[in-house]
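Recap for those who missed Tuesday's class. We walked through two folding examples back to back. For each one, the amino acid string is listed first and its predicted C-alpha cells come directly after. Nothing is annotated here on purpose, so try labeling regions yourself before you check the end of the notes.
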Amino acid sequence: MQIYQKKRLVAGLSITSNIILSVLKIITGFMSGSLSIISEAIHSLSDFFASVLTFFSVIKSSRPADNDHPYGHGKYEDMAGFIEGLLIIFASLFIIYEATKKIVFGVNMDAENISGIAVMFIAVIFNIIVSSLLFKVAKESNSISLYADGEHLRTDVYSSLGVLIGLILINITGYSILDPIIAILVAVMIFRAGYTISKKAAENLLDHSLPDENIEKMKQIIKSYSGAVLKNDSIKARQSGPSTDIDMVLQFPESTTICACHKICDEIENQIRLIYPNCSISIHSEPICYKKNCLNSCDKQHYNM
C-alpha cells in the first residue's frame, strides 16, 4: 500500500473512532452527571475536529508543487497541527473552568457509575490501537499532522485511564468531589499536549531549523568526503509538512572537474536521504579559491574568453 493511502486510511480511522467515543462519552456523562466523563467527551470532540483537519491536510499536502505553491503543499499539515494544538488548549481551559465551578458550588453525580467505567475502558482500548497506528504511519511519512493526531489520542489514553480509576474510586468511597479534581488533572494533561503540538507546528510554519544533532549528522557525512568542504556552516534546513528542505554550499579544490563535483554531491545527497527519505536538497558548489585569488585566475580566464 502506498504511503499516501496509508495516511488517508489511518486519518479516516481516527475520525471514526473519535466520533464514536465522543457520542458514548456525552451520553454517559450527562446520564451520570460526571464532569470527568463530560470533560473526556469534550476532549474526544476536540480530537474529532482535529482528525477531520488532519484528514483534509493529508489530502492537500499530498498534491505536487504547482505555480502557486512551487515548494509543494507540505505547510498545510503544519497549519493543521497548529490549529489542532489550539483546539486542545481551549478544550482544557473550558474543562478547568467547569471543574472549578463544580468544586465551588458542589458536585451532583451518580456515585454508581458502572456504565461510565465501561465506556472509559472501551475508550482506553480504542485509543491505544488507533494512536499506535497513527504514530507508525506518521513515522513512515514524516507527517506532523498525523503525529499531532496520535499525540491527541495518546493523551486521551492517559486521561481516560485517569477518569476510569477515578470512577472506580468514587464507586468504592462515595466521594463525588473526586470527579472535578480528576477532571482538572485531565485538563492539565490535555493542555500540555496542546502546547507541545502547537509549538512544534509553529516552529515548522516559521521555518525553524532542524535539531542540531541532525545538522551535525549532515556535517559528518560531508567530512567523510575528502574532496568537499562545507562553506562557513552554510547548511540551511527546515521542515515543511512531511518533507524536509535542505540547502548548503560546498567548496572544492579548483582542480576538481565538474563531473567529480557532481558525483560527490550526488553521493552526499544519497547519504542525507538515509536520514530524511522525503527531502529536497540543493547543493551549490564553488571552488575553494572563490573570492580569494580568483582575481588572479578564474576571473582573468573569464575575461580573456
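Example two. Treat it independently of the first, because the proteins are unrelated.
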Amino acid sequence: MPANLVRNLIIAVIASIAFYGLWIVIAGPGEVWREVQSLGLAGWGAILGLSLLNYVLRFARWQTYLNSLGYAVPVWPNFRFYLAGFAFTATPGKIGEAVRSLYLKRFNVNYTDSIAAFFVERLVDVVSMVLLSLLAAYMFDEWRWLIAVVSVLLILLLPLVRSRWLAVVIERVAAGSKKMQAMAGHVLQLLRSSRVLLSSANLYGGLIIGVLAWAAEGLALYIVVQMLGFDISVPLAVGIYAVSILVGALSFVPGGLGGTEVVMGGLLILVGVGEPVAVSAVLICRIATLWFAVAIGLVAALELELGNGGRYAMIDGKQGNGA
C-alpha cells in the first residue's frame, strides 16, 4: 500500500474530524445530536443500503470494462480489489482509488489497461454527476428548456472524447511548450489506451450505470431530509447532492472536504431546511456515503495486505487463459 496514500488518508481523517466538530459546535451540538438520533436504525439501514447499491453498480461497470479490455479477472477477487480502492476515496479527485491497479497486476492486468479503465470510470462519473446536478435547476420552470438542451448536447458530444479532432486540438494547444507537450503526450496515450472503453456501447452503457449509481446516493439525501421532518422533492435532493459532490471534486481537496459539506448545507438551507437539520443531514449523508466507503475500503485493503489476499499470485487474467 503506497505510503503517500496512507499519509494522505490519515490527514484527511484528522481534518474531517476537526471540520465536522467545528461545524457541529457552530450549529449546536445538542440539536444536531437529536436530529442524528431521530433517524433510527431503519433510516440508517436505508441510506447505507443505497450506498451499497452505488458500489455494486459501479463495480459491475468496472468488471465490464476489464472484460472489454480482454481480461477475465474472477468476480470475487476483483470485487475485493475494487472495494480496497475505496480506502483512498478521500484523496484529491479520488485518484487514490487507482491503487486497485496494484492488486489487479496479480492477474497480469497491465497498468496501462487498468489506468485506462480508471480514467473512463472517472470521466463517465463526472458526466453522470453533471447530468444529475441539472435536476436541481430543472425544478424551476423557466430553466427547463435550457436544461434539456444542455443534457442532450452533453450526451451527443460525449463521443468526441475518442475523436481524432480532440487529439489534434490537444496537440495544437501544447505545441508551444515542452512541458505542455509532455503532458499532452500522456493524455493522448491515455485516450489511445481507452479507445475500446470509449466505444458507444461502453460509453453510454457506463453512463446509464453511473447515473443510476449516483442517483441512489442522492436519494439517500432525500430520505435523510424527509426523516428529519422537511419535505423536498427527489429531483431537488438528487440535484443538490450532485452539485455538492462536483464542487468538492473541483476543489481537489481530499474527499471534497469542506466544499462539499458547505455547498450541500447551504443549498438545503436555501430551499427552506432549518440550519440544525441541514447540518445533521449533511453529516449523516457524508458518513453514509464517503466515510462508509472509506471504512469498507480499509477493511478490504487490510484483509488483502494482512490476510490471505497475497494468495492471488501472478495469475493470467486474459480471456480464455484459465482466469
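Answers for example two:
Residues 66 and 117 are 7 Å apart (CA to CA).
The radius of gyration is 21 Å.
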